[in-house]
Design a protein that fits this description.
The complex is a heterodimer of chains A (481) and B (147). Chain A is of the alpha+beta class and 481 residues long. Helix content of chain A is 71%, strand content 9%. In chain A, strand 4 and strand 5 form a beta hairpin. In chain A, helix 1 packs parallel to helix 3 and helix 3 packs antiparallel against helix 5. The two termini of chain A are 39 Å apart. Chain B has one domain: Rossmann fold (3-Layer(aba) Sandwich). Chain B has a five-stranded parallel beta sheet with strand order 2-1-3-4-5, with helices on both faces. Classes of the chains: A alpha+beta (481), B alpha/beta (147).
């Protein structure tokens, strides 16, 4: 069977589906990682640009302070006023701080060398200017000799040149970084776009390929399912055929059984008739000569063969109700019941019977079979009310659109509900044959006829308090048994 | 007719022949009964052939016909009787054990005049046979036929 192929296909299907989802996810994750790296790098560059600006500002500040110091020194040396030294004092205080700050910045080797040089030149300038200021203050005229001015100017120029170098280099570096960032941004945009397009194409192709494979798998699965369905249909068909065959066999067996019952009953009937006939003739022949005892024996033989004949006739009738076709027509059940009452009362003549026939409906039933039902039920009612001075027998019906329920109620000897289920079996009797005659086939016949109309039969009763028999006739044509 | 017509009993069972005869005894019809034991003999009798070639008793007043018969069944006897232009009006009473609807229908379709199921109690059986005999042999009138 191909049922083993189905779980395999299931796994392959799941794998393919996972692949279709995972590959695009991996590609998208890769793009995101690259973009994150680029953003990190750009932020580093932007931090570096800020550092460059700061470095240039430091250089500018240092330069201004150097100029302030030189300007202060020159003023003091020229006019001897302490007031002129004010800028130099603050510059002397601030310049080392500025230098320290500049050295704290990220400088390259050349810048660092230049800044060291500035420090060194500043030291010389500071020594030179300090000595000159001290001499001028002490009134030592050599300050003029010391105050070459030109020399300090050279030192100042050196420092400013170095600072310019640092500044220039920083500006170039900043420009480099800006260019780098711009290039990177541009590249990133281009590359991301390209990669996104590539990913799109890859995902598209890949998804298409996987979907195609899935489609293939689906086709295969579909084909398998179709095969399975076809197999199932074949199986169902063969099963149906077997059921049909069994049903036919069962029906055949049933028919054979019925035929056997019929044949046995029929064949037994002839010898019984002969025994009955000859014993009767024997009795007549011996009318005068035989003793009363012999005549009694003969009469018993006649009586018993009569009963046996009745039994066989009932069996034949029962068998016939199972075989005849049920032909349902509209039957006026009230007319039918009244006619049955007349016919059963022919046997019960002279008895006090109060019949109560309700308004009975027109039903959809086989009239001949329905007559047998009522004949059995009414003659039973008549039979089992025999001990009553006044027998009351009521026939009623409740008529609905789907079903009609008939009931036959009597005030007879009833029955023990304990044995209620045995009432409708063949040969089942709840009373001794000496007490009430009968063959025990009547109610079985009733049940069978009702069943063949698709209806049900049941009874209620209590010992010595009467019995009620119900049966239903569904309005729509019931299933033929 | 200057002689009493015969009664043809088609019955294979000796017992039944005896019982029918006993039943008809009281009606003084016994000596008018001719008995044949199978369907072929019945047709020979009716058509005056074979063993009955020299029979001169004419068509019977009526035929008491069993259905289950050796050689040729009762229904076929009935069919051939009704197909015969001379014999088609001969009254036929089917006397059988069969209460089968199919037998009943077929017998009436083929034109039986009556259909009686043999009752088991002899009283009933004897009464039935006597009434049949009295009616068909004495009361019933049939059209004259050419021989």
């Amino acid at each position: 069977m191909s049922s083993t192929a189905t779980p395999f296909t299931g796994i392959a299907f799941r794998q393919r589906l996972t692949r279709v989802l995972i590959v695009p996810m991996l590609l998208i994750t890769a793009i995101a990682t690259v973009l994150a790296a680029v953003v990190l790098r750009l932020s580093t560059l932007s931090r570096a640009a800020a550092a460059s600006e700061r470095a240039i500002a430091e250089v500018n500040l240092l330069e201004r302070r150097l100029i302030d110091a030189e300007t202060g020194t020159r003023g003091f040396l020229q006019f001897g006023e302490e007031e002129f030294l004010e800028p130099k004092h603050s510059a002397d205080r601030d310049i080392p701080i500025s230098m320290e700050a500049l050295r704290g910045e990220a400088l390259d080797a050349e810048q660092r060398r230049q800044s060291d040089q500035v420090a060194e030149v500043y030291a010389r300038w500071a020594g030179m200017s300090g000595a000159a200021v001290a001499m001028r203050r002490a009134g030592d005229s050599r300050y003029a000799a010391l105050d070459t001015g030109i020399e300090r100017k050279h030192l100042m120029d050196d420092m400013r040149r170095s600072l310019q170098v640092i500044r220039d280099r920083e500006t170039v570096r900043a420009a480099d970084r800006a260019a780098q960032a711009a290039t990177m941004t541009r590249r990133t945009v281009v590359v991301t776009l390209a990669v996104a397009i590539a990913v799109g194409v890859v995902i598209g192709t890949f998804t298409r390929r996987e979907l195609r494979r899935l489609g293939g798998t689906y086709q295969v699965t579909l084909a398998e399912m179709e095969t399975n369905t076809a197999q199932l249909e074949t199986l169902t068909a063969s099963l149906e055929q077997r059921v049909e065959e069994r049903t036919r066999q069962w029906q055949q067996a049933n028919q054979e059984l019925e035929a056997f019952t019929y044949s046995v009953s029929h064949d037994l009937r002839a010898p019984l008739r002969h025994i009955s006939g000859f014993s009767q003739l024997l009795g007549e022949a011996m009318e005068r000569s035989a003793s009363p005892q012999v005549r009694h024996y003969v009469s018993r033989i006649v009586q018993r063969t009569h009963e046996a004949g009745q039994l066989i006739d009932d069996l034949l009738a029962f068998s016939r109700t199972g075989r005849v076709e049920v032909v349902r027509t509209r039957v006026d059940s009230e007319t039918l019941v009244r006619s049955v009452v007349d016919s059963v009362m022919a046997d019960g003549a002279g008895r006090g019977v109060e019949w109560s026939i309700g308004s009975l409906p027109v039903v959809d039933a086989d009239p001949a079979l329905l007559r047998i039902v009522f004949t059995n039920l009414l003659s039973n009612a008549l039979k089992y009310t025999r001990p009553r001075a006044i027998a009351t027998i009521a026939v009623r019906a409740t008529h609905g659109p789907a079903i009609t329920t008939f009931s036959v109620e009597d005030n007879g000897v009833g029955f023990d509900m304990q044995y209620g289920d045995k009432l409708f079996g063949v040969f089942q009797r709840l009373h001794g044959a000496d007490e009430f005659d009968g063959t025990g086939i009547g109610l079985a016949t009733v049940k069978r006829i009702v069943a063949r109309h698709g209806g049900e039969t049941w009874a209620e009763g209590a010992l010595d308090r009467g019995a009620t028999f119900w049966f239903t006739i569904p309005a729509t044509a019931g299933r033929e048994l | 007719m200057d002689y009493a017509q015969r009664i043809l009993l088609v019955e294979d069972s000796r017992d039944d022949v005896e019982l029918v005869t006993a039943a008809l005894d009281a009606s003084h019809l016994t000596d008018r009964i001719d008995v044949v034991r199978d369907g072929a003999a019945a047709l020979d009798y009716l058509e005056c052939r074979g063993a009955y070639e020299r029979r001169t008793t004419g068509a019977p007043a009526f035929v008491l016909l069993d259905l289950k018969l050796p050689k040729i069944g009762g229904l076929e006897v009935l069919q051939r009787l009704r197909a015969n232009p001379v014999l088609r009006t001969v009254p036929v009473v089917v006397l059988t054990s069969s209460r089968e609807e199919s037998d009943l229908l077929r017998a009436y379709d083929l034109g039986t005049n009556a259909y009686v199921v043999k009752p088991v109690p002899f009283d009933d059986f004897a009464r039935a046979v006597r009434e049949i005999g009295t009616f068909w042999a004495t009361l019933n009138v049939t059209p004259p036929r050419r021989n």
